[in-house]
Amino acid sequence: MLNNPQVLFVPWLHFHQPPIWNNGQLHGNLEKMLGGESNSEEHWNAQWFAQAYKNPARYAKKLSEEGHQPRMMVDYSGVLLEEMAKLSTNGIFSNLYVDGEAVGDVISLWREVLTEYSDTIEFTGSAYSHCYFPATPERDHEAQIMEWRRVFADLFGEEALLRIRGFWPPEMGMTGDPAEALRFIRLLKKCGYEWIILPNAALEHPEGWSTPELENRVHWLVVESDGESECIICVVRDTDMGIRQQSGQNAEGCINDVRYRGGEVGMKPPALVVPTSDGENGNVMMFEYFKNSFAPLFRESDRWSDVGFMTVSQYIDTYLSEGPVTEVRLKSTGGSWIGGHQQWQEGDLRQQVLAAVEQLSQDYAKVVESGKGSAEKSRALLLCETSCFVYWGSDFWAQQAKLFIEWAREMLGS
User: Fold this and answer.
1) Which residues contact 209 (CB under 8 A, 6 or more apart)?
2) Closest CA to 274 of 199, 327, 185, 338
3) Spans of all domains in the chain
4) pLDDT tens for residues 283-311?
5) Nearest 10 degrees: CA dihedral of 245, 167, 200, 265?
6) How far apart, in whole angstroms, are the C-alpha atoms of residue 214 and residue 195?
7) Which residue(s) pair with 22 in the sheet?
8) Helix or strand run (H / E) with residue 198
9) pTM value?
10) CATH fold label, 7-328
């Protein structure tokens, strides 16, 4: 690692597949896709998705064994982690060949990387079922967060869980309501998180700041409500570089953009550039990113000796041991990775799903009060809160929500 880099950079990949009812059975969407006709587009996409979920660990190990020092941020929904574990042990991944190589036991590979190469990749926490927090009953927020942590610890161990310090809110969704935001930050801290990543769309843009000054510095996020105040360290997604990462920007173009941002922010402390994108969607992520963009960043690092690579928590430990020196505040509307909340809240179909989930949540709270709650019933409720059921605004996903809610209601009555 460089002693005095002018700017720090770490790419971030986000991964999720929803649960789905198929032929009267509950599956993960990846398993359902892999079960399609072998020559279908669905099956073809699914095999490359499977490889994509393996790629961060695969390249972290490969590049480390070559003598390089790769760095990456990742987040996986809890339901996807569970599905990867299932497909890693039931023979499906072992018999799935992609680009001439078996996908194999992805969870075991991740365990190896998290043990032997723990500096290379930083996981962040998230919600179990990839719920959209601003549209999810607040009474269920803690269960969503803690169920993710349970799944991760079961798969990778308590020691790996203790290293998780940051939080990715699914869809980067954040409320702008001061009281709700204050409670949410307190909940994150209660659950062990030290920092959160947000999009600039959720934040006020301080007067006089350039975009890099907002997106490429780490700040205190300060929330005030009814005389109370709460704060948490806030990392901001680099919007434009996230788009370029998804679209296939090469290593040299990436470094040039990083250098520009470093120059805009200055040296005290140096900028931290964090582009985020889906890790599996699109041809670039399925075929090109790791070979053509990620690996060259580290194999050719001598060409950009002024740029350093650190995970977010490594950066915080190195440069912000006494905390950030800048503050940001939420917009009154909050925001998401696409700007606002409309994709999860607007329209009759979405409102019908959200109303049914809210009623289910209220009913389960009464079940708990009666002493008849259980982990199984709680998990069923959390699955009904999957963001895909409202994001697409389609009859298919609304029907999926209906099937899940009916299934959960049967469990509540049992």
Assistant:
1) none
2) 199
3) 7-328, 346-412
4) 887 789 999 999 999 999 999 999 999 99
5) -80
6) 16
7) 25
8) strand 195-198
9) 0.97
10) 7-stranded beta/alpha barrel (3.20.110)
